[in-house]
Amino acid sequence: MLSLGPITFAAPWLLLALPALPVLWWLLRVTPPAPKRQDFPALRLLQEMPASEETPARTPWWLLALRLAAAALMIFGLARPIWGPVAGGGGQGPLLVVVDDGWAAAADWPDRMAAAEAELDAAAREGRRTALLLTAPPALAETPRITALMPAEELRGRLVALRPKPWAPDRAGALAALAEWRAQQGARFTALYVADGIEHAAEGDAFTPLAAALAEGGALVVARSEGRPTRLLPPPRAEADQLALTLLTTPLPVPSQAAVLARTGDGRTLARAEITVLAGATRAEAALPLPLEIRNQVVRLDLEGIAGANGTVLLDERFRRRPVGLIAGGEATAADVPLIGELFYLDRALAPHAELRRGSVPELLARRLSVLVLADRPVEAGRERDELTAWIEAGGTLVRFAGPRLAESPDGLLPVPLRAGERQLGGALSWDRPQALAPFPDGSPFQGLEPTPEVTVERQVLAEPSARLSGHTWARLADGTPLVTWDSRGAGRIVMFHVTANAEWSSLPLSGLFVDMLRRLVALSAGIGGADGEAPLAPMETLDGFGQLGPPSPGAQPIPAARVENEAPSPRHPPGWYGTGTSGDGAHRRALNLGAGVPAPRLAAAPPAGTTMRAIGGVPAERDLGPWLLAAAMLLLVVDLLVSLGLRGVLARPGRAVAGVLLALGLLAGPAQAQAQAQAQQRGDPALATRLAYVVTGDPQVDEISRAGLLGLSDFVNRRTAAALAEPASVVPGRDDLSFFPLLYWPVTGDSVQPDAAGVAALNGFMRNGGIILFDTRDEGSGAGFSPGAGAALRRLTRDLTVPPLAPVPEDHVLKRAFYLLADLPGRFAGGTVWVARDQDRANDSVSPVIIGGHDWASAWAIDARGNNPYAAIPGGNRQRILAYRFGTNLVMYALTGNYKGDQVHVPAILERLGN
Question: What local confidence, expressed as pLDDT, does residue 586 receive?
């Protein structure tokens, strides 16, 4: 090789052709002249003319220079010039490429492979043979192995197919493989070690022995990332209304940020939490607040911007599934007597949301349990109380209900001391009338639930007044008497309802509030896995090195259930889903996470003295200039050909030829340009196509959701009906003409501005002439609290509009049967009330000019550039989204056809369909 500054020639012997360029000068300097056209007179006029000597014309100097430049470029191109070549590691013998291909290498894997490929290119230019050693055990082998020696080009092909593995490297095994290879090889070698820069064991130093052994064999180059932290996301800790996140990282000299995304099984992001990592810190914590309905849909957490198993945590049933034990104080046969049994209402309230178990205290505690409910059952001192106490302190939740037995014999497993006897109507501690519930206080897990007037209490056990009673009360009666109290014991808690679990003392068990309160208490508990002991769980789906789920790797083996939680991932047990049954929703699954089984990452020691260090990433790759020079030479030869043909007269009129070429190109581009102009005109003129519209709010994110939502709805309607809707338009009332649009979607935000006089006039005229406005506050039902201030903003927006009296959508309204037969009208959220005009206006075909709801329909309809739905439907998932699209279709049909479906002629067909 020959190096000239930043350029290296891989085939320098071809440069010997440069001295031959003067020979080309003599070969190319003469060219035949072009014939000269001239009108000759009669031949006799030429008889007396003297004969002149004819000499050939010489090649113009600029044409000769053009040809010499083309020849020089061809010579330089064939010599394989390389700009910025990577210097080889020096040394002698073959090149051994060692790669840490464990979980820590995934974050910058392309840069690592680029560093290895650059070294292989240098080895190929030097004619060295190469070998490869991967430190992470392969999927079907126990220890690392070194490949046979091969040409650098062949090893480069193997590097392209490499992927990081979702387990830690085995540097001790790599060291043993290196010793065996050196014993067989004998000669010295050069090594490139692409290291991940961390130690993978809690203690010890595995990097230094391997690096020292490589340095003993010859020259050693260590390539690793500089300034990039290695991070690990362990499983979170489930708390009352949030997930407590922990981030393990290698230290940085400056503060940094990380973000964790909570995602559903189909990849939609439901929440995001930022984690601040202080300078020099190796651990950081943050909270991920999640409403109960959303939390149960989260199946994985991902570190934003990090593609690897180290940034992925799968959330199994331990974060959702809650086994609940039920024990009654009386006879077991009477506990389930309808309407009066102590467990009758508990069973019906909890059965849809938890796994219920029956038995004695020892039987229930013999298996892993999240919640234990005792209905008026005192706990006697002795072994049973000791076992319950130990279970609570280990993280269990004990829920107790009062009753005559507990009032007479209170025990030590109570959140607060009780007064003797109970308070009742007509008793010594009586009140004049049954007491209703007070609003739940801040900090209570029941906060956000609305007590109804129908829920009253006639009898209860009283808590002993004390200074700490207020801080241990989650629910009170209207007169301030505690109804639900709690106390923490170790890692668990005790919760007590001061009324019975049946309707004997209160009407609480008869209400839906009772179900919601129990669901929230169960959600507070620590979840568990399903299988226990040594029962094997087969691999269902496993993570690859980039954190992507796929079929189990070939070497994956079943794992005992008791070992899943803390097992370190390996080729036999890669991270992923393990369980029984299929991978459907009904299967029992346990998650094996990388962050639960490996220690916190710590920086590796410095390499041996004399090692050449090379940074990964940020260094421009070498570039082969040969193809570019050859292409430039060919271009010059084409120019020379055209010039030569022109000088010979073959291209007699080059101007006309060029004009013809340009004219042909213009004719080809003309139709495409005309079509583009026609499409642009169609998009800009709303009168040329039917389209939906949304009102611009000024919030870019909300407006983008509106656009994407109406685009998704238009696509759904076009595929399901005969309607042909164009792309939606954005409008500003008072500025844009609204008469072209049958339907306006208006998302209401807390800072929505009241329309001006021109806007009010335009909106009233739009509704008066048959248009429909859908106001969406995006804060009702399961979306309560997502859009604060939207209700007040809606009243502000509609203050000057001619809005008719409204009523909830009746069951027989056309909106529920315009195209699909619907019982509910959900969007992204469900459970709220949708309002339409109460009275029918015959002048407007009985169509409601205003529809008001808060289900965030645009988010449910929205599609992104890939055609995916970016926003989760809560809580019904895909089924709820389908219903949202169907409501949107009914809405479009309602806007286009009016009250057509309300005609009595359609009633028999609708009744027949309902009957089927």
Answer: 39
Return the structure tokens found at 911: 């009744």
Taking 70 as the pLDDT cut, the residues of the chain under it are 1-18, 21, 23-59, 80, 82, 84-91, 141, 240-241, 292-293, 320-321, 421-432, 526-534, 581-588, 617-623, 647-685, 687, 841-845, 899-911, 913-916
d(CA 184, CA 260): 49
β-pairing, 397-401 with 492-497? parallel
Which pair of structure tokens corresponds to residue 184? 């067989």
The pair of structure tokens assigned to 352 is 């849809």
pLDDT of residue 552: 87
Residue 341 near residue 334 (C-beta atoms within 8 A): yes
Distances in whole angstroms, Cα of residue 232 to Cα of each of 250, 319, 601:
9, 20, 7
In 315-448, beta strands by DSSP E: 323-328, 355-358, 371-375, 397-401, 418-424, 435-436
Chain-centroid distance, C-alpha 272: 10
Tokens of 19: 């001295």
Residues 763, 738 contacting (CB under 8 angstroms): yes
- The C-alpha atoms of residue 292 and residue 521 are separated, in whole angstroms, by 11
Specify the 3-state DSSP secondary structure of 768.
helix
pLDDT score, position 577:
92
Cα-to-chain-centroid distance, residue 737:
39
The whole-model pTM stands at 0.53
Task: Give the integer Cα–Cα distance in Å for 258 and 256.
Answer: 7
Residue carrying the six token digits 């203690």: 203
225: nearest Cα among 87, 89, 108: 108
Q: Are 690 and 897 in contact (CB under 8 A)?
A: no
Give the model's pLDDT for residue 240.
57
CA angle 308, 312, 317 (to 5 degrees): 150
- Grouping H, G, I as helix, E, B as strand and the rest as coil, residue 684 is helix
